[in-house]
């Protein structure tokens, strides 16, 4: 995932009133050394896998002992990352499942491979960290949940916000009642460059000789070898889930964790289109969605045509929480008038003066001593921190204690993305039918 680095926003009070700001630095706890060594295998060493692997082996007690990828060039890459020219590599990920010396797996494969890899890993008795979104379709998610439960496997999905110190602080503040009961959530992320829109350069040497193209297609329609589709698979719904699965799932996962929700939205209504990247893709480069989470509106804007800071904003009657990159901002609100009502300006002059004096007396407000607004900034490690998320997975493998972003949680976050995509392609609102475990159009059609 391309980093979307934008200078930290400057927050200005619209009224021009003075305000007090308090900044608190949150420190990421360093992983403790572990005497129990974990031997991992990795499936997929592409853009995301090539980042996960060095992060994983930089953690105490973690050793990579095998790698699988359908493109031979990434076998060499895995050996280079690990510094082990003799690292066993293979095109067949089942070779890793069969090895008794591998304790757990990391999977960073295209979305249309997630279900097969996770289900096979669980059935083989392997714990697995799988990149987001958990599934390629809503139906697949439930098969993955069942495989994890039936085999008592640790499954963690790779939306790193749930392991972020900033996300933990937002969750803590919300549970303490800092903003009151949630009224609305706004989520947004914008990019404005080809790499951010997945226009990746295919490996120059890619060919049917060094890539098992037929296997890579999996259950997608059979088409001739296409290096562009291999590198830019997120652009097509046959292999990926677009901005919903690439970007929205991070925002939704962070929201669910912050609010202590673990559920799918009740409905979704989406608008968007392909405005800039008219390169043959069928996934939108602008996608806006309004979700209904049991009466709470959640608005999401995802944009590949205009760069804007990522933020997650939680609104309540007692204040606002807003997370942007490495900062969490908390602004308490009293919900009370701080000045006499401007409606009284319509009173005759003497009446107005009497009203103002009475108002100030009742509210104990002294002339020249107006209240000062206050806010607190929590500065910490990246909102999207990979190493703590991997560490939490490895610790769960050792302890057998549950992870926050397990298969059930990951499934609920993925369902929201699938609903957003279905609403976009069906061109109508959709709703989630929990009894039937499927997405229905507003008129009830499947």
In summary, what is this structure?
The chain has 446 residues and is of the alpha/beta class. It has helices at 49-57, 73-82, 94-97, 114-123, 138-150, 165-175, 213-217, 227-231, 242-259, 349-362, 386-399, 407-426; strands spanning 19-25, 38-43, 62-68, 89-90, 104-107, 127-131, 155-158, 184-190, 267-273, 286-293, 296-303, 308-316, 319-324, 327-332, 373-379, 430-433, 438-441. Mean pLDDT is 92; it is low at 1-19.
Word description of this protein:
By secondary structure, the chain is α/β, with parallel strands linked by helices. It has two domains: 19-28 and 162-334 and 374-385 and 405-441, Dihydrodipicolinate Reductase, domain 2; 38-160, 3-Layer(aba) Sandwich (Rossmann fold). Helices cover 30% and strands 23% of the residues. It has an eleven-stranded mixed beta sheet with strand order 1-15-14-13-12-8-11-10-9-16-17. A six-stranded parallel beta sheet has the order 4-3-2-5-6-7, sandwiched between helices. The longest helix is centred in the last third of the chain and has 20 residues, at 407-426.
Main features:
single chain; 446 residues; alpha/beta; Dihydrodipicolinate Reductase, domain 2; Rossmann fold; 11-stranded mixed sheet; 6-stranded parallel sheet; 12 helices; 17 strands; disordered N terminus
Instruction: Pick out the low-confidence regions.
Output: 1-19
Which CATH architecture of the largest domain would you pick? 2-Layer Sandwich
CATH class membership of the largest domain: Alpha Beta
- Class by alpha and beta content: alpha/beta
Which homologous superfamily in CATH is the superfamily of the largest domain? Dihydrodipicolinate Reductase, domain 2
Count of strand segments: 17
User: What global shape is seen?
Assistant: globular
User: What is the number of domains?
Assistant: 2
CATH fold node name of the largest domain: Dihydrodipicolinate Reductase, domain 2
Number of helices: 12
The overall average pLDDT, rounded, is 92
Adjacency order of strands in the biggest sheet? 1-15-14-13-12-8-11-10-9-16-17
Secondary-structure element pattern, one letter each: EEHEHEHEHEHEHEHHHEEEEEEHEHHEE
Strand residues, percent: 15-25%
Relative helix content = 25-40%
């Amino acid at each position: 995932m391309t980093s979307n680095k934008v200078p930290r926003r400057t927050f200005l009070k619209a009224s021009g009133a003075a305000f007090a700001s308090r900044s608190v630095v949150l420190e990421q706890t360093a992983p403790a050394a572990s005497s129990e060594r974990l031997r991992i295998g990795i499936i997929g060493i592409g853009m995301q896998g090539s980042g996960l692997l060095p992060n994983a082996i930089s953690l105490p007690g973690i050793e990579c002992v095998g790698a699988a990828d359908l493109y031979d060039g990434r076998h060499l890459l895995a050996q280079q990352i690990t510094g082990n020219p003799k690292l066993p590599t293979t095109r067949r990920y089942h070779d890793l499942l069969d090895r008794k010396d591998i304790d757990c797996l990391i999977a960073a494969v295209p979305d249309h491979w997630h279900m097969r890899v996770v289900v096979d890993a669980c059935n083989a008795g392997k714990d697995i960290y799988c990149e987001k979104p958990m599934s390629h379709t809503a139906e697949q998610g439930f098969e993955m949940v069942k495989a994890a439960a039936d085999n008592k496997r640790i499954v963690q999905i790779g939306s790193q916000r749930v392991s972020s110190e900033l996300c933990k602080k937002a969750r803590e503040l919300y549970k303490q009642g800092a903003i009151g009961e949630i009224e609305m959530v706004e989520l947004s992320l914008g990019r404005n460059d080809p790499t951010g829109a997945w226009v990746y350069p295919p490996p120059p040497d890619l060919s049917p000789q060094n890539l098992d193209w037929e296997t890579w297609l999996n259950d997608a329609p059979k088409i001739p070898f296409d290096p562009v589709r291999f590198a830019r698979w997120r652009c097509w719904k046959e292999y990926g889930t677009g901005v919903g699965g690439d970007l929205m799932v991070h925002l939704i996962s962070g929201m669910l964790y912050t609010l202590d929700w673990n559920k799918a939205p009740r409905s979704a209504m989406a608008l968007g289109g392909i405005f800039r990247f008219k390169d043959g893709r069928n996934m939108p480069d602008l996608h806006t969605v309004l979700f209904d989470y049991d009466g709470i509106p959640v608005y999401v804007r995802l944009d590949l045509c205009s760069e804007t800071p990522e933020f997650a904003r939680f609104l309540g009657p007692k204040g606002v929480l807003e997370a942007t990159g490495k900062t969490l901002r908390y602004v308490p609100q009293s919900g009370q008038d701080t000045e006499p009502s401007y409606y009284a300006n319509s009173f005759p002059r003497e009446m107005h003066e009497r009203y103002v004096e009475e108002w100030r007396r009742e509210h104990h407000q002294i002339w020249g001593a107006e209240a000062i607004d206050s806010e607190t900034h929590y500065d910490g490690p990246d909102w999207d921190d990979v190493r703590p998320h991997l560490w939490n997975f490895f610790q769960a493998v050792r302890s057998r204690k549950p992870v926050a972003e397990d298969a059930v949680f990951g499934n609920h976050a993925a369902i929201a993305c699938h609903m957003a995509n279905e609403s976009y392609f069906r061109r109508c609102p959709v709703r989630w039918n929990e009894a039937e475990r499927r997405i229905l159009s507003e008129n009830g059609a499947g």
